[in-house]
Amino acid sequence: MTSTYQKLWRNVSIRAGFGTLAVLVLLAIATPLLGTIDPVAMDATFISVAAGTKGMFTLPDGTQIAHTFWMGSDPIGRDVWSRVLYGTRISLIVGIATAMVAVCIGCVLGMLAGYFRALDAVLMRIMDGLMAIPSVLLAITLVATLGASLTTVILAIAVPEIPRVTRLVRALVLSLREEPFVEAARALGTRDASILWRDILPNSLAPLIVQSTFIAASAILTEAILSFLGLGLPADIPTWGNIMAEGRVQFTQSPGNVLFPALFLVPTVLAINMFGDGLRDVLDPKFAKRL
């Protein structure tokens, strides 16, 4: 019988998505080694220069270094190549952290709602109320209330995702709690906390892993939207959304300031979604039967 690992590796979507993400992670790790400079350093000598321009860049401490602007520079003389690569780090951090926060909180709430009937009505009405608010609008409200920072942006994007995870886990728990192995554990006097941790949670991991990939992709895209609108991370933090927002002022003269970050944003979101689709095809029994 074909093992799960073999099925995962044979899936084209998983291989394509994983390969693209691996390249992006390597770029993020090796950013200081790829001809980059301080992403917030500016030199008025190189304002909106074309891609491939070479010159002596003056660092904030007055030191001059030979530098090539592989993607040109922005309207205030910052290197777009450096800002895009450092923005890769921020985007990956936002995606991974948001998925972890949403899945962890949603998993706990979903298990409580699905296993304890007394909590079900209360928790799910709260989740329904959160889901009634558009996710971007809720994120904007939270950022405006808590202040713009990496932590608050992650929390603001994670909160709208929590109800979706909660409803998913609740549905899984409602079906699992009636399974014979759970009823046997209750008959033996096993504590509810132990049943949830040792019996129900492991059987819910596959759908949660798949859901976390879609949350990560959505978080990266939402962060870019918020930053593009000036409602996300502060302008001094290099993110793809901030770079595109600053470049749109001179889009006709320097379209690369918008296009180059987009060329990183689109493959990243696409790769995560492909990876998640592949995981769903292999791990979800409904789709696995088709393989």
Automatic annotation (TrEMBL):
InterPro entries: BP-dependent_transpt_permease (IPR050366), MetI-like (IPR000515), MetI-like_sf (IPR035906). It is a multi-pass membrane protein. One of its GO terms (cellular component) is plasma membrane. GO terms for biological process: transmembrane transport. It is found in: Cell membrane. Keywords: Cell membrane, Membrane, Transmembrane, Transmembrane helix, Transport. Residues 88-276 form the ABC transmembrane type-1 domain. Pfam families: BPD_transp_1 (PF00528). CDD domains: TM_PBP2. The chain crosses the membrane at residues 12-34, 90-116, 136-159, 214-237, 258-276. The keyword Hydrolase does not apply. Belongs to the binding-protein-dependent transport system permease family. This is ABC transporter permease. It comes from Pigmentiphaga aceris.
